[in-house]
From TrEMBL:
Belongs to the UDP-glucose/GDP-mannose dehydrogenase family. This is UDP-glucose 6-dehydrogenase. Pathway: Nucleotide-sugar biosynthesis; UDP-alpha-D-glucuronate biosynthesis; UDP-alpha-D-glucuronate from UDP-alpha-D-glucose: step 1/1. It comes from Devosia crocina. SMART domains: UDPG_MGDP_dh_C. The lineage of its organism: Bacteria, Pseudomonadati, Pseudomonadota, Alphaproteobacteria, Hyphomicrobiales. One of its GO terms (molecular function) is NAD binding. One of its GO terms (biological process) is UDP-glucuronate biosynthetic process. The active site is at 262 (nucleophile). Signal peptide: none annotated. NCBIfam families: NDP-sugDHase.
Amino acid sequence: MKIVVLGAGYVGLTTGACLAELGHHLTCCDIDHARVAALRQAEIPIYEPGLAELVSAQMTAGRLEFSANAEDAVRSADAVFLAVGTPSDQGGGIDLSFVMAAAAGIAPHLRKQAVLIVKSTVVAGTAQQIKALVDKTRGNSDIPVGSNPEFLREGSAIGDFMHADRIVIGADDPRTEAVLREIYKPLVRTGIPLVSTRTVNAELIKYAANALLALKIGFINDVADLCEAVGGDVTAVADGIGRDSRIGPGFLAAGPGFGGSCFPKDTRAFASTGRQHGAPQPLIEALIDGNDRRKRSLAQRIIDATPDGGRVAILGTSFKANTDDVREAASLTIVPALLAAGLDVHAHDPQPGAAKRLLDGISWHETPIGAVRSADVTVILTEWDEYRSLEPNRLAAAMRGRTVLDFRNVLAGEKVASAGLHYHSLGRPS
Ligand code: UGA
């Protein structure tokens, strides 16, 4: 099939490269000419394991190309995926202007056999809204609009695409459903279930899935607080509950609160949709509140553990491991709070590019040991493997103080303690 993806960001690029790998012919379009020029040289603008190799292999195979001229690219397309950004708006909802502008821009140039598919994360009813806009722009209702949400995690996006738990397709007409089934046939043949439903349900599935996963995290973080208060161990509790197949073991790792480009934005949008339609989502409202509060209270915990004007080493500024993304990362709340408290902040991250642009007033180091040298307190904020393998004796020798706050529970407490350090993790005995 000839497929065009509009938006060569993280979702568009991964989706485009993976669809090419399935055997389709892909053109990924972006309005950013510099980005398109770089992609044509197989230069990938984001850090995503395996993506650069996949893009370059698909380009060599002649199945993947890039263009800044979407109007031209869509003329011969069988399907066009919208994968442009949907940032939060002022009221916690999402700003659909990029999606709408992209749809309106290409609408007059689509062949009448084409289908338009919304890949961007959008609130319930958006596919139908886009359909109305496309109909109006064309003066015709020949182009159907479908929904095909993504469930890709940053850092493991290619694996998540190729070995998805399920593929969700939303279609309000048989043509869209048939096209989407055809596109995903190679994956369905490998045994991946395909859930076919109406567009509004597909849109809701995306939000409800992210909201429920975020609830699991918020819940285990509350359980971690309780464990600390009563002397329990959240790792043992998570293991025990996660073995119940109705609960499942995933997303039960206590941490400094969820971040990233999806959970915070999507939970806000879910709650906002509920308010707007008179179907409030009190669980999600409380979750959002608790998650924000958690980041602030962990900042206070670091401040309380550090002598006045002392030195703090932050290990990990990305919102999670294996990504350079810092959007809504705990570091963005915690580091400014430490600086405001007059502390001297030193940081390390294996992929610090974006964080360096966003976090002012701190000293960056090339190695974790460089960052912890002379620190009064060391804080682990991201679960990079590099931190899991930190040698406690080296840590103890480099630090000036003795306190290690492991907010990702990646170190073995006894080993750290036997190196003479005071070790505190989340929801586990000190
Ligand atoms: C998330 C979903 O997992 C994807 O399925 C979805 O497609 C994506 O959002 C999206 O909507 O596009 P992502 O934001 O890349 O993916 O990252 P996750 O691995 O889900 O982690 C989100 C946050 O939760 C991170 O801050 C992470 O550190 C935190 N987390 C995750 C925990 O604190 N504990 C856990 O057990 C799991």
